[in-house]
Design brief:
The complex is a heterodimer of chains A (175) and B (74). With 175 residues, chain A is mainly α. In chain A, 68% of the residues lie in helices and 0% in strands. Chain A has one domain (10-160). Chain B has helices at 15-19, 22-37, 44-73. The longest helix of chain B is centred in the C-terminal third of the chain and has 30 residues, at 44-73. Chain B is flat. The chains are: A mainly alpha (175), B mainly alpha (74). Chains A and B meet through α3 and α8 of A and α2 of B.
Chain lengths: 175, 74
C-alpha cells in the first residue's frame, strides 16, 4: 500500500457509530459542528413529522419490513419509535381474551386480531396517510445513511474541521 | 378512543393535504444533501433553495408526464 492508502481506524468506527446513533454526531465528532447540528435538526424533524402524521404504528417491524430497515438508519429516532410501537403492540396483544387467544395458531390469525384491535384503538395507519408518513420516516433514515457514509469517508481521509473556503492565498499574503 | 394524541394516533389527512407535504420532504433532502456536499457554508441557503426548486420542478414534470401517459394510453 502507498502512503495515501485509506486504512480503517478506530476514529472511522467511532464516527460511524456516532453518526448512526445520533444523526449529525459523526460530523460534530469530526469538528464539523455547524453541519452536524443542521443534520441533527433536519433528520430529526423529518423523522418526527412522519411519526406525527402516522402515529405510533409508522415504524412497523412486522408488516413494513423495508420501511423498517430504512427507519433503523435514523439511529435513536428509529429505536425510540420501534420501542414505542412494540409497547403498544404487546399491550394490545395482552388485552386479548381467552377465546381470541385460541385462534392464534397461525400468524395470519394473530395479524387479523391485531388489525381489529388497532382499528378499535384508532391506531390503524391507513391510506393515503400511511405511505406519506412512512416515506418521511424512511427518507430520514436514508438521509442519515448518506451522512454516515460522509462521516466515515471524512474520518478515513483524516479530514478534521471545516475545510477553508477556496480563494487566492497569494492575495491574502500580500495584504 | 378517548382523544387524539400527537405521535400516537395517526392524522386524518386528505390526498390534497398530503400533496403539500412534498415541500418539506424536498426541503429536507436538499438541506441534508447540501449540508454534507457544500464547500462553503455561507453559500448553503442559496444552494438549498436551488436544489429544492430542482427537485420540485423535476417531480412536477414527472407527475405531469405520468398524468399525460395515463390519460392518453391507459
Amino acid at each position: 500500500m502507498g502512503n495515501g492508502a485509506i486504512k480503517s481506524s478506530p476514529r472511522a468506527l467511532l464516527a460511524l457509530l456516532l453518526a448512526w446513533l445520533a444523526p449529525g454526531a459523526g460530523h460534530v465528532y469530526l469538528g464539523r459542528r455547524a453541519r452536524g447540528i443542521i443534520i441533527f435538526l433536519t433528520i430529526g424533524a423529518t423523522f418526527w413529522i412522519g411519526v406525527a402524521m402516522g402515529g405510533v404504528m409508522t415504524v412497523d417491524s412486522r408488516n413494513e419490513q423495508w420501511w423498517f430497515v430504512a427507519d433503523m438508519f435514523a439511529g435513536v429516532h428509529g429505536l425510540v419509535s420501534w420501542q414505542r410501537q412494540e409497547q403498544v403492540w404487546n399491550r394490545l396483544l395482552g388485552e386479548a381474551d381467552a377465546a381470541e387467544r385460541a385462534g392464534w395458531g397461525d400468524p395470519a390469525g394473530q395479524q387479523a386480531l391485531m388489525d381489529k384491535r388497532l382499528s378499535e384503538a384508532g391506531l390503524a395507519l391507513v391510506a393515503p396517510t400511511d405511505t406519506v408518513a412512512r416515506a418521511f420516516a424512511g427518507v430520514a433514515g436514508l438521509l442519515n445513511l448518506m451522512c454516515i457514509f460522509d462521516a466515515v469517508l471524512l474520518a478515513l481521509m483524516r479530514v478534521g474541521g471545516e475545510t477553508p473556503p477556496k480563494g487566492p492565498p497569494a492575495r491574502r499574503q500580500q495584504q | 378512543m378517548t382523544g387524539w394524541t400527537l405521535f400516537y394516533h395517526p392524522m386524518t389527512l386528505s390526498f390534497n393535504e398530503l400533496l403539500w407535504m412534498l415541500l418539506p420532504l424536498c426541503a429536507s433532502v436538499a438541506i441534508t444533501y447540501k449540508t454534507i456536499r457544500t464547500g462553503n457554508l455561507r453559500r448553503l441557503p442559496l444552494e438549498i433553495l436551488q436544489l429544492s426548486l430542482y427537485l420540485l420542478v423535476g417531480l412536477a414534470g414527472l407527475g405531469a408526464g405520468l398524468y399525460i401517459i395515463q390519460r392518453l394510453w391507459l
